[in-house]
Write a structure and sequence with these properties.
CATH architecture: 2-Layer Sandwich
InterPro entries: Dimeric_a/b-barrel, DUF1330
Radius of gyration: 13 Å
Number of domains: 1
Strand content: 25-35%
Strand order of the largest sheet: 2-3-1-4
Number of strands: 4
Number of helices: 3
């Protein structure tokens, strides 16, 4: 079974306090669901049409595990804390 990667990009952060509250809850929720944070922060370099925005890369053992992490009650609580404090996108991609 191929690993899966959860890629989150932040287009805008309008409420840093909400983001901090989200981070306090989301890290443990993701780890409890089997996720491993591989990278997070602003890109060291962007090319082509790349945007310099906060990016988080999380590895899971499968797409199903990544979906379950996102849909878990613990992660949903983190999302509620974030509310509209950031505009972001999450993609789950299967590894090769």
């Amino acid at each position: 079974m191929a690993k899966a990667y959860w890629v989150a990009t932040y287009r805008a952060i309008s409420n840093p306090d909400a983001l901090a509250a989200y981070a306090q809850l989301s890290g443990p929720a993701i780890a409890a669901a089997g996720g491993r944070i591989l990278a997070r922060g602003v890109p060291a370099q962007v090319y082509e049409a790349g945007l310099s925005m906060r990016t988080v890369l999380i590895e899971f053992d499968s797409v199903d595990q990544a979906r379950a992490a996102h849909d878990s009650p613990a992660y949903q609580k983190a999302l509620a804390a974030l509310a509209d404090g950031a505009e972001r996108e999450i993609r789950i991609v299967e590894g090769v």
